[in-house]
Amino acid sequence: QKEVEQDPGPLSVPEGAIVSLNCTYSNSAFQYFMWYRQYSRKGPELLMYTYSSGNKEDGRFTAQVDKSSKYISLFIRDSQPSDSATYLCAMSVTGYSSASKIIFGSGTRLSIRP
Amino acid sequence: DTAVSQTPKYLVTQMGNDKSIKCEQNLGHDTMYWYKQDSKKFLKIMFSYNNKELIINETVPNRFSPKSPDKAHLNLHINSLELGDSAVYFCASSPIGQPTSLANTGELFFGEGSRLTVL
Fold first, then answer.
1. What does the pLDDT look like over A30-58, one tens digit per residue?
2. Which of A46, A88, A92 sits opposite B43 (nearest CB)?
């Protein structure tokens, strides 16, 4: 079993829809949770970062962490065609050590139809 | 001005050959990484270096040898290439562990990737 599981999709939704992307994980020691966005033929870029449980909002994006269920989500409101990309969840045990390993999910490919 | 740059962007080579990928970052970070992304987009850490010192070495075949001549550079040399080595290799850097405000998230800054195809 992989440490981080993510549905690879593809997920296709119409413009303006609310998108929900999810990951589950098995290592209860994870404390730092991230979402990266990767456009085609580019490197991943950090989109959202949360520590421990709870919600964090940034514009149209909301990241949610439920440590009791070992489940994290990313919600995108009013989705735009420019949101079409692969979204990778990522997590680590420690946030401040150079020995910290960031473990990625396999990514969900999202397509927003105009 | 590119923050993390990798060369070459594309590599096509025969099985058994040796190849190198170079990476440079101008962000002033102490920590650099190599990640491998397979055809299913799964991104897996291979190595990390902090200030030229090897910190993380995942279960990677010893045909893969990273080298960090200074903290702004991390190169990857691969000997005796195999078909299964075909992937996109990403270099990344991070301010993690540095005593600055930038280090708060440990964000990874990725290069654009080097797409290796072994025939």
1. 988 999 999 999 999 999 988 878 899 99
2. A88
Q: From the candidates A52, A98, A101, A104, which should be mutated to test the interface with B, based on the most B CB atoms within 10 A?
A: A98
In contact, A102 and A43? CB cutoff 8 Å:
no
Q: Which residues pair with A104 in a beta bridge?
A: A90
A-chain CB neighbours of B55 within 8 Å are: 98-99
Q: Do B111 and A43 touch (CB under 8 A)?
A: yes
Tokens 């005796």 sit on residue: B80
Report chain A residues whose CB lies below 8 A from the CB of B31: 98
Contacts 24+ apart (CB under 8 A), B14-19: B14/B81, B14/B118, B14/B119, B15/B81, B15/B82, B15/B83, B15/B118, B15/B119, B16/B80, B16/B81, B17/B80, B17/B81, B18/B77, B18/B78, B18/B79, B18/B80, B18/B81, B19/B77, B19/B78, B19/B81, B19/B116
Interior/surface letters B23-62, b for 16+ CB within 10 angstroms, e for the rest: bbbeeebbbbbbbbbeeebbbebbbbbbeeeebbeeebee
Centre a 10 Å sphere on the Cβ of residue A55 and count the other Cβ atoms it contains.
12
Q: How far apart are CA B29 and CA A16, in angstroms?
A: 38
Q: How would residue B102 be classed by pLDDT, with cut points 50, 70 and 90?
A: very low
- Determine the 3-state secondary structure of B83 from DSSP: helix
